[in-house]
Amino acid sequence: MLRRLVLLLLWHLTTGYLGAFAQNTPKYSNEFLNIGVNARAMALSNAQTATVADVSAGYWNPAGLVHSTYHYEGTLTHAEYFAGIAQYDYMGFSTNIDSSSRLAVSLIRFGVDDIPDTRFLYDANGAINYNNIRYFSASDYAFLLSYAKRTALEGLSWGSNFKIIYRQAGDFATAWGFGLDMGMQYRRGSWFLGAMARDITGTYTTWSHNVTLLYNVYAQTGNKIPKNSVEITLPRLHIGIARQFRWKQFGILPQVELPLTFDGMRNTLIRSASVSIDPSMGIELDYQRMAYLRFGAGNLQQIKDFDGSRSWSYQINFGAGFRFKSFTIDYALTDLGDNAEGLYSHVFSLKVGFNK
């Protein structure tokens, strides 16, 4: 039965009708949900599908929730982007339902606050009055409800997410969306396998614009008045594989991630008109499962220079973690060496677990 479901899902993702949809849907719909959560994951270049085994599995692969070693587990992550202009926050909580199933809730926010609204900068007399400047926020929110369960086959688990998306640009525009994810993990000995299908039915986000607030300004500047619309986020598939090695008190966990997108050709290492693959890899070193060092590489893109030549850019990430009893703190520095086009960011995570 499980094999039939997996085959049906793969057929659903790769058949031609997705390619037809891709011609009319944006590639980067709800892109804030692809940033990732948890400093450990970001240090490993988001190679998590096969190995995630804590509360953050509610985002990466809900099937991994059942491998948590605590009855209750909570986590917080904070990061800043674009020199602190954008704030990214994540919180998650998970708990056992019974001996074979687990439940988790997650909340993600990505926002830019205190954006000046200069529509009323000039007063009725045509003079500039800075006291008339107002401020608003442009924020994206996602709420995830996750469920995971072990199967009768030893080492195999599955999980699913139901997500609600809310996006807001001050009082000017709002959007609501709903989506569904499904994942599986299989562990055998030192090997880890995982697959995660995001937005398996397509995630539909409906935008509503407050035209009354924008009409006068748009008319004066010659901009097109926005219309209410629906964005469709097409499915994507993540496949991961990893293997654990241990030598006495030391351990090493290399892992590879293959994210597949089906929304047309992207600037990735492997690409075609229907499928693009952006591989990444990470390696985690540990001492007594208490102190950790992490490295990751990914985000390979071909950049065209002004002289017409092309070169490859890539992103190297670094991280560290420390666990003391039930507390874990993780840190990641993304884009080590500034090799990618984006700026580097510092990411911090705190995790705590406890039993009854």
UniProtKB/TrEMBL annotation:
<feature type="signal peptide">
    <location>
        <begin position="1"/>
        <end position="22"/>
    </location>
</feature>
<protein>
    <recommendedName>
        <fullName>PorV/PorQ family protein</fullName>
    </recommendedName>
</protein>
<keyword id="KW-0732">Signal</keyword>
